[in-house]
Amino acid sequence: MPADRLPPLNGLRAFRAAARHLSFRAAAEALNVTQSAVAQQVRGLEQALGAPLFERHARGLALTPAGEALLPPVDQAFRLIAEAASRIAQQADVLTVSATPSFVSRWLVPRLDGFTRRHPGIDVRLSASNDLVDFRRDGVDIAIRYGSGVDPGLAAQLLFPADPVAVCSPALCRADGTLDPADLGGRVPLLHDSHFLWAEWYRAAGRDEAEARRGVRFSHTLHAIEAALLGQGIALVPRPLVERELRARQLVAPLDIRLPPGRGFFIVAPPELWDTRKVAAMRLWLLSEAAG
């Protein structure tokens, strides 16, 4: 093969995956292709090089001397390409933000024009989902997630505490503005979101948590809040998402029992992205909005 001619790149990619796992099957799973495709690409690379790269055994693969010689430079080349692509992406003026649909709709979007005015050169892309983010696969730069902690492999900062509060329409309350806990799950249906916090509330109240299974289940907190506003039941949701309605008395918090504190909305990002220009701009803006 001429020195200035590259071997098949798909073959090199398949070879690298197979050499890492010493298995065509595992390489196929890692590359999200079929096992036969990996085997065919490796055979094509071996033909182009004129040398076998693997010894095929019943229990797996073993690198030949040629394979052992090829793997380090191939691994380094792919790593250099990935690092260069990551640096370019970080410098681009597109910022992809992932957050739950309820946070996007009820907290972020009403404030977002403040960020775009302050940073007109950064184009924001919002990805609203309850799913955990794979930053590299999903092309996400920064995320806001709700809970009591975050993945230890990520850089994280508390945006603001957000303990859950049980809210309903004032129309469901008694004349004095209170609500009898005995009415929950009966006259006042439970409205569940994807966090399923009512069981924990029942435990805190000293009641049988099996009763908390009743009610209407929503995949998003946003829909549970909307149902509460319509008087369809009582929802247990992060307080910052309903502050506006509580102030306007469109919703009330009629129950004294609270869950243990510690939950909040967290800013999270991979450590290597945390201090890049666009991620730092969004992170600092979010913190200033939360403080204000």
Written description of the protein model:
This protein has 292 residues and is an alpha/beta fold. It contains eleven helices and eleven strands. The protein has helices at residues 9-21, 24-31, 35-49, 65-91, 101-108, 112-118, 135-138, 198-204, 221-229, 243-247, 277-291; strands at residues 54-57, 60-63, 94-99, 123-128, 142-147, 155-161, 164-167, 190-192, 216-217, 234-238, 264-269. The protein has a five-stranded mixed beta sheet with strand order 4-3-5-11-6. Strand 8, helix 8 (198-204) and strand 9 (216-217) form a beta-alpha-beta unit. Helix 1 packs across helix 3 (35-49), helix 1 crosses helix 4 (65-91) and helix 2 crosses helix 3 (35-49). The mean pLDDT is 90.
